[in-house]
Amino acid sequence: MSNSFYDYVRGRSEAVPAGYTLSGMRAYRYLVYLGASQMVEANFPMLRTQLGEQEWRLLIEGFVRQSVWTSPYYGDLPHDFMAYLLRESAEIHA
């Protein structure tokens, strides 16, 4: 798969890659968001409640878009999520 596929799925681009449909790419993007959301919530159950639905969505979308995870396993996401939060916190406090 091309970088344009991954860029779209992670929300880094709105350009639909050649050979794919907009509806199909939206489905892929949603599935990646849903998988990340569920895995993070399973490991940090109170976070979603504390943030509320809108802030939670923004947090997970930012994580998916900006994270550097390379593992294909959702089980590896909690460590990457913590690293993302630390990077974001460092940028805010810099």
TrEMBL record:
Q: Which residues form the Putative DNA-binding domain?
A: 3-85
Molecular functions per Gene Ontology: DNA binding
Pfam families in alphabetical order: DUF2063
* Signal peptide positions (record): none
Query: Which keywords belong to this entry?
Result: DNA-binding
Query: What's the protein name?
Result: DNA-binding domain-containing protein
